[in-house]
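Data card: per-record layout.
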Amino acid sequence: MNNLVILCNGAFPTEPYPLFLLDSAEGVVCCDGALEKWLEHRPDARPLMVVGDMDSLSEGLQERFKDCIFHETEQDYNDLTKAMRWVLKEHPEVTDITILGATGLREDHTIGNLGLLMEYTRLFDLGDRRVSMVSDFGTAFALTDSSDLHLGEGRRISVFSADNSLKITSEGLEWPLDEVVFDAWWKATLNRTSAPIVSLHFNHPAPVLVMVD
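The structure for this 213-residue chain is written out next.
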């Protein structure tokens, strides 16, 4: 199984692209109550696993899907991180992990989950796995070093980092990042691609969040 979706309990996707990713996934791991939202979209849905502390999943659904529930009670990490941990342990062969429903509804959850996308590059040995967070409004992914991004011309793009020692030189952006000091999250937002390929050159490895739409 190479292509998995982790479905979180935020805003359920409604646009064609994220719904295609959900419907075409080889397996779907639900974070707790996200299962209920998926069943509203697809009543015959069958999760690979439901992971979480089960605080937002009805007793009826817990009984119905009791053979595919992984009840994780520790509170040091949220349900998304618990689901990531389960996927990487139980399906080490996975090459693509798409996270849906991780944004919307609550701003604090949105900011926290986007921050976790960067943190996963430190928490887990991701290797060559592609991990992305997709919503109705765009796609987010993390980088750890210099990269060429084949995004196409005219895309909106924002770059975030919590490392104020990081310097990024760029090619293919309307507003180059060469003079940006990453000491505030807004510093490299609201940019636009000016070439089909965006090249980002880091002065040292560091977690960086890229958002495109």
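Known properties of this structure: The longest strand covers residues 130-135. The longest helix spans residues 107-123.

See the next section for split statistics.
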